[in-house]
Amino acid sequence: MERAKALVLLSGGLDSMLAARVLMEQGVEVVGITFISNFFGATNGLAAAKQLGIPLIAYNIAVEHLAMVKNPRYGYGKNMNPCIDCHSMMLAEAKQIMEGKEVVLFYPDGSIKAIAAVYDFIATGEVLGQRPMSQTKPSLKIVAKFSGLNEKLVRPLSAKLLDLTEAEKTGKINREGLLDINGRGRSRQVELAKQYGLANYPSPAGGCLLTVPDFGVKLKEMFKYWPDCNGKDVELLKQGRQFWLGKEDNKTLVVVGRDEKDNEKLLKLKGASDLILKLIDEVGPIVLVRSKKLEFRSKNEKQEILVPEKISSEKIILEKIESEKEIIDMASMLTGFYAKKLVGKTVNVEITT
Predict the structure, then answer these.
(1) Which Pfam families match (predicted)?
(2) What is the pTM of this model?
(3) 286 close to 263: Cβ distance less than 8 angstroms
(4) Residue 57: phi, psi to the nearest 5?
Protein backbone atom coordinates (compact mmCIF):
# COMPACT_ATOMS: atom_id res chain seq x y z
CA MET A 1 0.00 0.00 0.00
CA GLU A 2 1.18 3.50 -0.83
CA ARG A 3 2.58 5.37 2.16
CA ALA A 4 0.02 7.70 3.75
CA LYS A 5 0.72 11.44 3.85
CA ALA A 6 -0.51 13.65 6.69
CA LEU A 7 -0.48 17.35 7.36
CA VAL A 8 -0.09 17.89 11.12
CA LEU A 9 -0.90 21.16 12.88
CA LEU A 10 2.33 21.83 14.75
CA SER A 11 2.12 24.62 17.32
CA GLY A 12 5.39 23.45 18.82
CA GLY A 13 3.75 22.30 22.04
CA LEU A 14 4.18 18.78 23.34
CA ASP A 15 0.76 17.49 22.26
CA SER A 16 1.21 18.47 18.61
CA MET A 17 4.71 17.00 18.58
CA LEU A 18 3.40 13.74 20.01
CA ALA A 19 0.58 13.62 17.45
CA ALA A 20 3.17 13.85 14.68
CA ARG A 21 5.40 11.27 16.33
CA VAL A 22 2.58 8.74 16.82
CA LEU A 23 1.78 8.92 13.12
CA MET A 24 5.45 8.65 12.17
CA GLU A 25 5.59 5.41 14.20
CA GLN A 26 3.06 4.00 11.72
CA GLY A 27 5.18 5.00 8.74
CA VAL A 28 3.06 8.00 7.80
CA GLU A 29 4.87 10.73 5.87
CA VAL A 30 4.32 13.79 8.06
CA VAL A 31 4.58 17.45 7.11
CA GLY A 32 3.97 20.04 9.85
CA ILE A 33 2.05 23.26 9.44
CA THR A 34 2.21 26.19 11.86
CA PHE A 35 0.32 29.45 11.61
CA ILE A 36 1.33 33.09 11.99
CA SER A 37 -0.94 35.85 13.28
CA ASN A 38 -0.69 38.94 15.46
CA PHE A 39 -1.05 36.68 18.50
CA PHE A 40 1.28 33.77 17.78
CA GLY A 41 4.22 33.05 15.51
CA ALA A 42 6.16 30.24 13.89
CA THR A 43 9.18 30.08 16.23
CA ASN A 44 7.98 27.13 18.35
CA GLY A 45 6.69 25.28 15.32
CA LEU A 46 9.99 25.60 13.50
CA ALA A 47 11.89 24.33 16.55
CA ALA A 48 9.51 21.39 16.93
CA ALA A 49 9.76 20.43 13.25
CA LYS A 50 13.54 20.48 13.45
CA GLN A 51 13.48 18.25 16.53
CA LEU A 52 11.10 15.83 14.78
CA GLY A 53 13.11 15.94 11.56
CA ILE A 54 10.14 16.88 9.36
CA PRO A 55 9.46 19.71 6.89
CA LEU A 56 7.23 22.59 7.99
CA ILE A 57 4.83 25.04 6.39
CA ALA A 58 4.70 28.45 8.12
CA TYR A 59 1.43 29.98 6.94
CA ASN A 60 0.35 33.58 7.58
CA ILE A 61 -3.34 34.09 8.45
CA ALA A 62 -2.96 37.42 10.30
CA VAL A 63 -5.61 39.46 8.44
CA GLU A 64 -8.33 36.79 8.46
CA HIS A 65 -7.49 35.77 12.00
CA LEU A 66 -7.83 39.29 13.42
CA ALA A 67 -11.22 39.70 11.74
CA MET A 68 -12.35 36.44 13.36
CA VAL A 69 -11.03 37.39 16.81
CA LYS A 70 -13.15 40.55 16.72
CA ASN A 71 -16.35 38.57 16.26
CA PRO A 72 -15.99 34.84 16.90
CA ARG A 73 -18.99 32.68 16.07
CA TYR A 74 -18.51 30.47 19.14
CA GLY A 75 -17.32 33.15 21.56
CA TYR A 76 -14.26 33.42 23.77
CA GLY A 77 -12.68 31.16 26.35
CA LYS A 78 -11.47 32.37 29.73
CA ASN A 79 -9.75 35.40 28.19
CA MET A 80 -9.87 36.72 24.60
CA ASN A 81 -9.12 33.30 23.10
CA PRO A 82 -11.79 32.11 20.62
CA CYS A 83 -10.38 28.58 20.51
CA ILE A 84 -13.19 26.83 18.62
CA ASP A 85 -13.24 29.46 15.88
CA CYS A 86 -9.45 29.63 15.81
CA HIS A 87 -8.96 25.88 15.42
CA SER A 88 -11.69 25.78 12.78
CA MET A 89 -10.04 28.57 10.79
CA MET A 90 -6.62 26.94 10.92
CA LEU A 91 -8.04 23.61 9.80
CA ALA A 92 -10.03 25.21 6.99
CA GLU A 93 -6.82 26.86 5.74
CA ALA A 94 -4.94 23.57 6.14
CA LYS A 95 -7.67 21.81 4.14
CA GLN A 96 -6.87 23.97 1.10
CA ILE A 97 -3.21 22.99 1.40
CA MET A 98 -4.15 19.34 1.89
CA GLU A 99 -6.04 19.50 -1.42
CA GLY A 100 -3.04 20.83 -3.36
CA LYS A 101 -2.55 24.55 -2.73
CA GLU A 102 1.06 25.56 -3.36
CA VAL A 103 3.00 26.57 -0.26
CA VAL A 104 6.59 26.98 0.89
CA LEU A 105 8.18 24.17 2.91
CA PHE A 106 11.07 24.69 5.34
CA TYR A 107 13.20 21.55 5.64
CA PRO A 108 15.30 20.49 8.66
CA ASP A 109 18.51 20.89 6.63
CA GLY A 110 17.71 24.58 6.09
CA SER A 111 16.54 24.29 2.49
CA ILE A 112 13.31 25.93 1.32
CA LYS A 113 11.07 24.76 -1.51
CA ALA A 114 7.66 25.75 -2.91
CA ILE A 115 5.50 22.71 -3.63
CA ALA A 116 1.87 21.74 -4.21
CA ALA A 117 1.09 18.32 -2.71
CA VAL A 118 -2.02 16.33 -1.84
CA TYR A 119 -2.34 14.78 1.62
CA ASP A 120 -4.57 11.96 2.83
CA PHE A 121 -5.67 13.62 6.07
CA ILE A 122 -4.97 16.32 8.64
CA ALA A 123 -4.04 15.64 12.27
CA THR A 124 -3.89 17.76 15.43
CA GLY A 125 -2.61 17.33 18.97
CA GLU A 126 -6.02 17.98 20.54
CA VAL A 127 -6.77 15.90 23.63
CA LEU A 128 -10.33 15.05 24.63
CA GLY A 129 -11.30 16.82 27.87
CA GLN A 130 -8.09 18.83 28.16
CA ARG A 131 -9.83 22.20 27.72
CA PRO A 132 -13.34 22.80 29.07
CA MET A 133 -14.54 24.86 26.10
CA SER A 134 -12.74 23.72 22.97
CA GLN A 135 -11.86 20.07 23.61
CA THR A 136 -15.11 18.45 24.65
CA LYS A 137 -16.63 15.86 22.30
CA PRO A 138 -19.27 18.31 20.99
CA SER A 139 -16.62 21.01 20.45
CA LEU A 140 -14.30 18.64 18.59
CA LYS A 141 -17.21 17.67 16.31
CA ILE A 142 -18.03 21.34 15.68
CA VAL A 143 -14.43 22.04 14.68
CA ALA A 144 -14.35 19.06 12.30
CA LYS A 145 -17.62 20.13 10.68
CA PHE A 146 -17.00 23.90 10.67
CA SER A 147 -13.58 23.43 9.04
CA GLY A 148 -15.07 21.20 6.33
CA LEU A 149 -12.75 18.30 7.18
CA ASN A 150 -15.22 16.00 8.92
CA GLU A 151 -13.77 12.44 8.79
CA LYS A 152 -10.50 13.64 7.28
CA LEU A 153 -9.49 15.06 10.67
CA VAL A 154 -7.53 12.75 12.99
CA ARG A 155 -6.70 13.35 16.66
CA PRO A 156 -4.04 10.67 17.30
CA LEU A 157 -3.75 11.27 21.06
CA SER A 158 -7.45 10.61 21.77
CA ALA A 159 -8.48 8.71 18.62
CA LYS A 160 -9.61 5.55 20.44
CA LEU A 161 -12.16 7.62 22.36
CA LEU A 162 -13.56 9.28 19.23
CA ASP A 163 -15.42 8.13 16.12
CA LEU A 164 -13.56 6.31 13.37
CA THR A 165 -12.03 8.57 10.75
CA GLU A 166 -11.67 7.99 7.04
CA ALA A 167 -7.96 7.27 7.38
CA GLU A 168 -8.71 4.49 9.87
CA LYS A 169 -11.55 3.03 7.81
CA THR A 170 -9.42 2.87 4.66
CA GLY A 171 -6.40 1.42 6.41
CA LYS A 172 -4.17 4.47 5.96
CA ILE A 173 -3.50 4.29 9.68
CA ASN A 174 -4.05 1.60 12.30
CA ARG A 175 -6.41 2.53 15.13
CA GLU A 176 -4.57 0.18 17.48
CA GLY A 177 -1.48 2.32 17.13
CA LEU A 178 -3.35 5.45 18.18
CA LEU A 179 -3.97 6.58 21.77
CA ASP A 180 -6.79 7.08 24.29
CA ILE A 181 -5.55 10.05 26.33
CA ASN A 182 -8.31 11.94 28.14
CA GLY A 183 -8.45 14.86 30.56
CA ARG A 184 -6.16 17.60 31.79
CA GLY A 185 -3.38 15.48 33.26
CA ARG A 186 -0.01 15.52 31.53
CA SER A 187 1.67 12.42 32.91
CA ARG A 188 1.09 10.23 29.86
CA GLN A 189 2.32 12.92 27.49
CA VAL A 190 5.46 13.50 29.56
CA GLU A 191 6.15 9.75 29.63
CA LEU A 192 5.68 9.53 25.85
CA ALA A 193 8.02 12.49 25.36
CA LYS A 194 10.73 10.57 27.23
CA GLN A 195 10.01 7.47 25.17
CA TYR A 196 10.34 9.39 21.90
CA GLY A 197 13.31 11.47 23.05
CA LEU A 198 11.48 14.80 22.87
CA ALA A 199 13.28 17.07 25.31
CA ASN A 200 12.46 20.66 24.39
CA TYR A 201 8.89 21.91 24.31
CA PRO A 202 7.06 24.98 25.69
CA SER A 203 4.41 24.95 28.41
CA PRO A 204 0.79 24.32 27.33
CA ALA A 205 -0.87 27.39 25.72
CA GLY A 206 2.40 29.27 26.15
CA GLY A 207 2.48 30.50 22.57
CA CYS A 208 -0.78 32.44 22.21
CA LEU A 209 -1.15 35.99 23.51
CA LEU A 210 -4.95 35.67 23.49
CA THR A 211 -4.70 33.38 26.54
CA VAL A 212 -2.77 36.03 28.53
CA PRO A 213 -5.21 37.94 30.82
CA ASP A 214 -3.45 41.34 30.76
CA PHE A 215 -3.09 41.33 26.99
CA GLY A 216 -6.73 40.30 26.62
CA VAL A 217 -7.83 43.36 28.61
CA LYS A 218 -5.76 45.62 26.34
CA LEU A 219 -7.12 44.01 23.19
CA LYS A 220 -10.73 44.25 24.35
CA GLU A 221 -10.18 47.93 25.05
CA MET A 222 -8.74 48.50 21.56
CA PHE A 223 -11.69 46.70 19.93
CA LYS A 224 -14.01 49.01 21.88
CA TYR A 225 -12.27 52.25 20.92
CA TRP A 226 -11.00 51.27 17.45
CA PRO A 227 -13.34 48.57 16.09
CA ASP A 228 -11.64 48.85 12.69
CA CYS A 229 -8.15 48.37 14.14
CA ASN A 230 -5.66 46.46 12.01
CA GLY A 231 -2.67 44.27 12.74
CA LYS A 232 -0.28 47.22 12.97
CA ASP A 233 -2.48 48.74 15.66
CA VAL A 234 -2.56 45.49 17.63
CA GLU A 235 1.23 45.30 17.52
CA LEU A 236 1.37 48.52 19.58
CA LEU A 237 -0.29 46.69 22.49
CA LYS A 238 2.82 44.51 22.80
CA GLN A 239 5.10 47.48 23.38
CA GLY A 240 5.69 49.66 26.45
CA ARG A 241 2.94 51.46 28.35
CA GLN A 242 -0.33 52.45 26.66
CA PHE A 243 -2.46 55.49 27.45
CA TRP A 244 -5.82 56.23 25.79
CA LEU A 245 -6.58 59.95 25.56
CA GLY A 246 -9.87 61.65 24.67
CA LYS A 247 -13.51 60.63 24.71
CA GLU A 248 -14.69 57.15 23.76
CA ASP A 249 -15.63 58.03 20.17
CA ASN A 250 -12.35 59.81 19.45
CA LYS A 251 -9.55 58.00 21.27
CA THR A 252 -5.87 58.67 20.68
CA LEU A 253 -3.34 56.03 21.71
CA VAL A 254 -0.04 57.07 23.27
CA VAL A 255 2.60 54.35 23.70
CA VAL A 256 5.66 54.95 25.88
CA GLY A 257 8.66 52.68 25.37
CA ARG A 258 9.98 50.91 28.48
CA ASP A 259 13.46 50.10 27.20
CA GLU A 260 15.72 50.19 24.15
CA LYS A 261 14.00 47.19 22.58
CA ASP A 262 10.59 48.88 22.90
CA ASN A 263 12.01 52.10 21.47
CA GLU A 264 13.39 50.33 18.41
CA LYS A 265 10.11 48.50 17.85
CA LEU A 266 8.03 51.68 18.14
CA LEU A 267 10.16 53.39 15.51
CA LYS A 268 9.56 50.44 13.18
CA LEU A 269 5.82 50.49 13.88
CA LYS A 270 5.45 54.21 13.17
CA GLY A 271 2.79 54.94 10.56
CA ALA A 272 2.78 57.86 8.13
CA SER A 273 0.44 59.97 10.28
CA ASP A 274 1.86 59.02 13.72
CA LEU A 275 3.84 61.36 15.92
CA ILE A 276 7.17 60.35 17.46
CA LEU A 277 8.47 62.14 20.56
CA LYS A 278 11.90 61.82 22.13
CA LEU A 279 14.10 63.78 24.51
CA ILE A 280 16.78 65.92 22.89
CA ASP A 281 19.43 66.23 25.62
CA GLU A 282 18.58 63.25 27.82
CA VAL A 283 18.25 59.49 27.51
CA GLY A 284 14.62 58.39 27.68
CA PRO A 285 11.74 56.62 26.02
CA ILE A 286 10.46 56.86 22.49
CA VAL A 287 6.79 57.85 22.56
CA LEU A 288 4.43 57.09 19.66
CA VAL A 289 1.09 58.86 19.23
CA ARG A 290 -1.60 57.42 16.93
CA SER A 291 -5.11 58.66 16.25
CA LYS A 292 -7.82 57.34 13.93
CA LYS A 293 -9.67 60.64 13.61
CA LEU A 294 -7.24 63.46 14.41
CA GLU A 295 -4.90 64.39 11.57
CA PHE A 296 -1.68 65.67 13.08
CA ARG A 297 -0.14 68.43 11.04
CA SER A 298 3.31 67.70 9.63
CA LYS A 299 5.77 68.43 12.41
CA ASN A 300 9.46 68.76 12.99
CA GLU A 301 9.62 70.89 16.09
CA LYS A 302 10.88 71.12 19.65
CA GLN A 303 8.94 71.74 22.82
CA GLU A 304 10.18 72.75 26.25
CA ILE A 305 8.15 71.27 29.05
CA LEU A 306 8.27 70.92 32.83
CA VAL A 307 8.13 67.28 33.85
CA PRO A 308 5.49 66.95 36.58
CA GLU A 309 6.14 65.00 39.75
CA LYS A 310 2.97 63.01 39.20
CA ILE A 311 0.79 62.18 36.18
CA SER A 312 -2.70 60.85 36.73
CA SER A 313 -3.63 57.87 34.59
CA GLU A 314 -7.23 57.93 35.81
CA LYS A 315 -9.67 57.48 32.94
CA ILE A 316 -11.72 60.52 33.96
CA ILE A 317 -8.61 62.72 33.61
CA LEU A 318 -7.33 61.24 30.36
CA GLU A 319 -10.77 61.58 28.73
CA LYS A 320 -10.52 65.38 29.01
CA ILE A 321 -7.40 65.50 26.82
CA GLU A 322 -8.82 65.95 23.31
CA SER A 323 -7.24 68.71 21.23
CA GLU A 324 -4.03 68.21 19.26
CA LYS A 325 -2.17 70.62 21.58
CA GLU A 326 -3.42 68.86 24.74
CA ILE A 327 -2.44 65.46 23.34
CA ILE A 328 1.05 66.63 22.38
CA ASP A 329 1.54 68.31 25.77
CA MET A 330 0.55 65.12 27.60
CA ALA A 331 2.74 62.96 25.35
CA SER A 332 5.66 65.33 25.98
CA MET A 333 5.15 65.11 29.73
CA LEU A 334 5.03 61.32 29.52
CA THR A 335 8.28 61.36 27.53
CA GLY A 336 10.02 63.14 30.39
CA PHE A 337 8.15 61.47 33.24
CA TYR A 338 9.23 57.95 32.23
CA ALA A 339 12.88 58.94 31.71
CA LYS A 340 15.23 58.50 34.67
CA LYS A 341 15.51 61.26 37.27
CA LEU A 342 13.86 64.05 35.25
CA VAL A 343 10.80 64.58 37.45
CA GLY A 344 10.45 68.28 38.34
CA LYS A 345 12.97 69.36 35.66
CA THR A 346 12.46 71.23 32.41
CA VAL A 347 13.30 69.16 29.33
CA ASN A 348 13.36 69.61 25.56
CA VAL A 349 11.28 67.20 23.50
CA GLU A 350 11.57 66.65 19.77
CA ILE A 351 8.27 66.01 17.96
CA THR A 352 8.25 64.61 14.43
CA THR A 353 5.81 63.05 12.00
Answers:
(1) ThiI
(2) 0.91
(3) yes
(4) -105, 125
